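<backbone_tokenisation>
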Amino acid sequence: MQRNPKGWLVFISHSSRDTWVAKQIAREVSLCGATPFLDEANVEVGEDFEESILTFLEQTHELLVLLTPWALDRPYVWAEIGAAWGRRIPIVGILHGMTTTEFQSRSEVPIFLKKRDFVDINDIEVYFEQLKARVDAVGDE
């Protein structure tokens, strides 16, 4: 893992079942000028997996979480959301395979997530446009 990544950092939280989709999102995040973190791409063989995740979460500017029915069953996804919430950084939820209503009706979803605006995967371009604007604004400082 790159220990001191430069620029705007985006941690991409996802279930292993969503790896292909997460890789596509990471590619687009890079095209926006930000540095994405994906566990399978940024944690080297033999590295301490949890330590690598915590290190990047401590540095990241925002968490993008791919919210799928199976991702909500993954403890790491919840841990990563909790870490981002504790740091008070933006949590961007991308819904894939469920609607906002279905997501909000799940009893395991905490209130702080239910009251956020989420983006459907089919409208993810809105997120990329906003991300590019954030990256450009930081570059202008």
